[in-house]
Design brief:
mainly alpha; Ammonium transporter fold; two-stranded antiparallel sheet; 433 residues
Length: 433
């Protein structure tokens, strides 16, 4: 029965930090693993730039398209430098007496990291860069919860503080050998660390910042669906690195993760399209690509643990549940999560993380459980991981927004919102008038 890759990540780091006898040698670096992980790193960065930037940029109104692009680029730069400064060590290094909750500071400014540093079968610089791309895309996903009405300065401060206070601790809890990893939480590539985190943060942002002027009575359709579809296609391809790279090597687990990822995306897209076709009498491009993203996000935590048929089942469930979650949040509750981060990524992350405890069963083609007592115990651990992450993320996100509102002010003025953030915040137009 295979052990959780989430546990493997923590084990890799803890083993690399253990004092070895003088005659022992570091494990050999695998050229195949290294080549694959460099490729996976590039694929995951492609998901943010330009994938997510185009996807989100096309979904907003034309007067705000550039604001989304600059937010994605700026968050990439800020998160990367913070990851180098302190984030990586706090997420993945040994935290000593605080190991269960947070990592250490021995990699502050990447002190001690060089070309010969090794994590598992990988050069540590490659492992660092791969994990950096996850630290970049997670706060970038949150953009969808506050798009079209937030000050750019707030985006920078919020993203930086949220990365350090929310993403980094949760990544350590699950992937860095922290308390949830020790309990056996199974999160192969970020269903909890990335998608539940981003979904909860986006929902809190939407509630605290408030709706866009006119929502929900004024129609606010996407201004450029070809951009949306192009960005979604890049996300789909990049997700092969996101999930396949989380095997941390060129192996069968990576191959199965890629297979599961593709099948989950296809099933999610078809489920969303068929429901929309039945409900509105016509299928839409927006519905299909949103279903793709729902399937991708939902299969993420399970991708390295389930078989192909399990992935198809998870994808169909994702497309169905996320479709109705979107309707409820926007049409019933009138919460302006502008780009559907909470009903797609958040709800998808919860569903996928729970269903991991079902479809990882060896009888259903999966690899087995981290919690050896079976499905029920694994399901309880998964639910605990989701609840702990949602509670921590929701509380810290709320506090950050309240502090930033009191100091900087979260929203642009009504006049600037009507004019559009492209001109009001950046002095540029995406399109000629």
């Amino acid at each position: 029965m295979s052990a959780s890759v989430a546990m493997r990540r923590g084990a890799f780091l803890l083993l690399s930090l253990t004092a070895l006898p003088a005659f022992a040698q570091s494990p050999p670096v695998s050229a195949a693993d290294t080549a694959w992980m460099i490729t996976a790193t590039a694929l995951v960065l492609l998901m943010t730039l330009p994938g997510l930037a185009l996807f989100y940029g096309g979904l907003v109104r034309g007067k705000n398209a550039l604001s989304i692009l600059i937010q994605c680029f700026a968050i990439t730069c800020v998160a990367s430098l913070l990851w180098l400064l302190v984030g990586y060590g706090l997420a993945f290094r040994d935290g000593g007496s605080l190991q269960g909750f947070i990592g250490g500071l021995d990699r502050l400014f990447l002190t001690g990291l060089n070309a010969s540093s090794v994590v598992g079968t990988l050069p540590e610089p490659v492992f660092f860069m791969f994990q950096l791309t996850f630290a970049v895309i997670t706060p970038a996903l949150v953009i969808g919860g506050y798009a079209e009405r937030i000050r750019f300065s707030v985006v920078l401060w919020f993203s930086a503080l949220w990365l350090l206070l929310v993403y980094v601790p949760v990544a350590h809890w699950i992937w860095g050998g922290g308390w949830l990893a020790k309990l056996g939480v199974m999160d192969f590539a970020g269903g909890i660390v990335v998608h539940v985190n981003a979904g909860v943060a986006a929902l809190v942002c939407a509630l605290v910042i408030g709706n866009r002027r006119g929502f929900p009575h004024v129609p606010m359709p996407p201004h450029n669906l070809p951009l949306v579809a192009t960005g979604a296609g890049m996300l789909w391809v990049g997700w092969f690195g996101f999930n396949g790279g989380s095997a941390l090597g060129a192996n069968g687990t990576a191959g199965m993760a890629i297979l599961a990822t593709h099948m989950g995306a296809c099933a999610g897209a078809l489920a969303w399209m068929l429901i929309e076709w039945w409900h509105y009498k016509k299928p839409s491009v927006l519905g299909v690509v949103t279903g793709v993203v729902a399937g991708l996000g939902t299969i993420t935590p399970a991708s390295g643990f389930v078989g192909p048929l399990g992935a198809v089942a998870i994808g169909f469930i994702a497309g169905t549940v996320c479709f109705f979650a979107t309707q409820i949040i926007k049409r019933v509750l009138h919460i302006d999560d502008s780009l559907d981060v909470s009903p797609v990524h958040g709800v998808g992350g919860v569903i996928g993380s729970l269903l991991t405890a079902v479809f990882a069963a060896t009888a259903l083609g999966g690899v087995g459980y981290s919690v050896q007592t079976g499905m029920g115990a694994q399901l309880a651990v998964q639910a605990l991981g989701i609840a702990a992450t949602a509670l921590w993320c929701g509380l810290i996100t709320w506090v950050l927004l309240k502090v930033l509102d009191a100091t900087l002010g979260l929203r642009v003025s009504e006049e600037q919102e009507s004019e559009g953030l492209d001109l009001a915040q950046h002095g540029e137009r995406g399109y000629s008038p």
